């Protein structure tokens, strides 16, 4: 299985390798339920890493952008689209949800795609933002609501607290409390060593906090102020601060309060040295204004320290009420510290060592692993059930007739049939023969748009702007039910018209399909839902082993010698399609009996064909089965310079029948044919005379379509 993991931790990178101590642990933790991981995380560019190299073998890192101001939020849908494009590759998803819009965005995308997702609630969004800054206070209600919202539909959740986060951000589905804190098993003599230390006489008790020293919501300044109050009472305690940062602000606070001789800023310590440091500490204090379930408190408890902490988040789950204070309350801190004696130190040493045993790695890992495996097994079962259940695809069209959008819908339905989906066409009746053909293919045809019909579908394709407008009242309910509403852009719109249309597309639809590279820049600018490229493909009607008999029958019907080179042109006869140039090219070979020219189509320029007196030209009018005539031909000329050409299906058909092809240079023709395009009819004549006509181009056929559909529509193979 392939896991998409949205992580709240960041990694360091030098451009080649990635470094992170906590993320390494997480990758191995979640790797027990998957074979490969795509990890979405923040990245810090560095020259000298401060963490260990991540050596997990099957992980790909993608960078998460920062959403730290209102302007950055304008790119919300663009970022979500990019995440969705990678998320669709995966079978399951794990998201660390906290304050980040990236995490909730990922959770939303997974739900919309129907990908099983497990949420790990790593902290309180409200506390994290409210205690951050003035800007944070403005954002706090939004992130609080956002986290509550995603937890309402979280099917699986792991909370890092026992009770606090569960109550603040509840889920009605499956969840466990399992801290991210993991401790090694304590040595047998740890309590004895602690008691001996307490009994040793000392001038001052040693107090400590492990936290970044430049982050004011960690609250060390309140402890420093409490030291000043204690000194006034004749009580002195040392306060040791371990953590990264300059500590300039805390030094000023200590100096202002006259306790700089009691405050020691030790800087950051390697985690391997933390336990040894805590063994020298009498009192551990966590004065934070926001936390999840602080690792440092549990580590201090495991070493027998008396622990004091603010009454926030998961801290009350760890400590006795007697040792809790309101965050930022200097008087309460001083009162608790002043009352501590040897008996309390001994009593709390026994209690804390015992409670910390609940956070031993072996216990937590087993609990977490069991829940993760349950999540994986149920996800696998869901995937299997989804594959066994026949899903429905609905095509919203203007008319049931033989037209461009209708034929695209027909080709899509043929591919979906191969993948086990049933197709329904909804449109106004126009052609009985086309309807009959659809029903013979096994597809249903309906003439009324009803909400019940929509609810029966899993994927809803919108093939016109008219039907887009008809969906406005229903789209929200359909999206909530998990229906993917997909808009396919069949027509080339001007910039201003597409800009207006895009507002409706972004509201009504969940996905956008671009059928041609020509519209890439326009779509990137205006479309904010996930965009996928599926080049318009053609499903061949005939197998290769039928080609010889088809070619023989067609040539006999047209009275074309078997050894003659047949050169074909097909188009709607209107300016820009190249009919005049084709006739001029045919005229250049009017005396060459080895070449014969075939024209299929109809339209306003038909008079050009009717006025033609060339004996080497055959005109067959508009035909439904163009493929059979392509099979009978040797060379196909595509001479269109039509400015609104999105993606020429006639050219795709010719490619799929393995024709030799000559085409004029345009951006889209170059995309389909590579460098094998020409600039004028004179160039065409030259190639025909030299018999240097290229062939065997990349096909956009059933094989191509199945591969793209599996990716875009998250269609799983049997496990």
Automatic annotation (TrEMBL):
Record's keyword terms, sorted: Glycosyltransferase, Transferase
Superkingdom to which the source organism belongs: Bacteria
Alphabetized Pfam families for the sequence: Glycos_transf_1
Alphabetized GO MF terms: glycosyltransferase activity
Transmembrane annotation, as ranges: none
Domain spans labelled Glycosyl transferase family: 215-350, 551-665
InterPro entries given in the database record: Glyco_trans_1
Protein name: Glycosyltransferase
Protein source organism: Parabacteroides distasonis
């Amino acid at each position: 299985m392939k896991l998409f993991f949205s992580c709240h931790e960041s990694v360091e990178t030098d451009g080649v390798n990635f470094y992170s101590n906590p993320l390494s642990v997480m990758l191995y933790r979640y790797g027990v339920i998957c074979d490969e991981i795509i990890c979405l995380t923040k990245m810090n560019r560095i020259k000298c890493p401060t963490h260990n190299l991540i050596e997990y073998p099957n992980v790909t890192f993608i960078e998460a952008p920062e959403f730290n101001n209102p302007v950055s939020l304008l790119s919300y849908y663009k970022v979500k689209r990019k995440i969705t494009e990678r998320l669709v590759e995966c079978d399951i998803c794990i998201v660390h949800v906290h304050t980040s819009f990236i995490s909730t965005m990922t959770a939303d995308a997974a739900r919309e795609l129907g990908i099983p997702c497990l949420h790990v609630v790593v902290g309180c969004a409200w506390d994290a933002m409210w205690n951050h800054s003035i800007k944070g206070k403005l954002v706090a209600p939004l992130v609080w609501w956002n986290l509550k919202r995603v937890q309402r539909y979280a099917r699986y959740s792991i909370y890092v607290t026992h009770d606090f986060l569960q109550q603040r951000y509840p889920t009605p589905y499956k969840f466990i409390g399992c801290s991210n804190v993991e401790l090694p098993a304590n040595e047998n003599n740890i309590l004895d060593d602690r008691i001996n230390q307490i009994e040793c006489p000392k001038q001052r008790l040693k107090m400590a906090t492990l936290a970044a020293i430049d982050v004011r919501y960690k609250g060390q300044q309140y402890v420093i102020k409490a030291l000043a109050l204690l000194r006034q009472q004749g009580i002195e305690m040392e306060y040791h601060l371990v953590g990264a940062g300059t500590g300039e602000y805390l030094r000023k606070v200590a100096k202002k309060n006259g306790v700089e001789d009691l405050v020691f800023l030790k800087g950051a310590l390697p985690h391997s040295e933390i336990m040894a440091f805590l063994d020298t500490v009498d009192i551990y204090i966590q004065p934070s204004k926001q936390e999840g379930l602080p690792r440092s408190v549990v580590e201090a408890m495991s070493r027998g320290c008396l622990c004091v902490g603010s009454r926030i988040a998961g801290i009350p789950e760890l400590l006795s009420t007697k040792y809790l204070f309101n965050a930022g309350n200097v008087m309460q801190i001083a009162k608790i510290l002043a009352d501590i004696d040897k008996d309390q130190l001994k009593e709390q040493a026994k209690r804390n060592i015992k409670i910390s045993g609940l956070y031993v790695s072996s216990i937590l890992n087993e609990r977490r692993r069991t829940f993760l495996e349950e999540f994986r097994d149920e996800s696998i079962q869901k995937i299997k059930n989804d594959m066994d259940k026949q899903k429905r695809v609905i095509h919203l069209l203007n008319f049931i007739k033989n037209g461009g959008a209708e034929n695209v819908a027909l080709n899509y339905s043929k591919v979906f049939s191969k993948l086990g989906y049933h197709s329904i066409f909804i449109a106004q009746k126009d052609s009985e023969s086309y309807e009959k053909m659809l029903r013979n293919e096994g597809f249903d045809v309906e003439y009324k748009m009803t909400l019940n019909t929509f609810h029966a579908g899993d994927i809803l394709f919108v093939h016109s702007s008219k039907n887009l407008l008809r969906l406005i009242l229903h789209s929200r309910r359909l999206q909530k039910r998990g229906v993917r509403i997909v808009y396919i852009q069949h027509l080339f719109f001007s910039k201003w018209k597409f800009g207006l249309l895009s507002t409706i597309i972004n509201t009504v639809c969940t996905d956008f399909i671009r059928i041609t590279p020509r519209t890439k820049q326009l779509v990137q600018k205006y479309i904010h839902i996930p965009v996928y490229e599926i080049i318009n493909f053609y499903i061949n009607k005939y197998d290769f082993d039928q080609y010889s008999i088809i070619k023989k029958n067609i040539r006999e019907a047209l009275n074309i010698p078997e050894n003659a080179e047949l050169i074909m042109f097909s188009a709607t006869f209107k300016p820009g399609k190249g009919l005049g140039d084709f006739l001029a090219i045919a005229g250049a070979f009017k005396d060459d009996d080895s070449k014969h020219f075939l024209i299929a189509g109809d339209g306003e320029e038909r008079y050009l064909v009717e006025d033609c007196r060339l004996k080497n030209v055959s005109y067959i009018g508009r035909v439904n089965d163009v493929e059979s005539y392509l099979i009978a031909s040797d060379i196909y000329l595509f001479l269109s310079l039509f400015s609104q050409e999105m993606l020429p299906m006639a050219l795709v058909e010719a490619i799929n029948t393995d024709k030799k092809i000559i085409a004029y240079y345009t951006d889209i023709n170059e995309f389909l044919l590579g460098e094998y395009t020409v600039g004028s009819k004179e160039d065409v004549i030259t190639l025909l005379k030299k018999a240097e006509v290229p062939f065997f181009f990349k096909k956009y056929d059933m094989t191509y379509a199945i591969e793209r559909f599996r990716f875009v529509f998250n269609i799983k193979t049997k496990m």
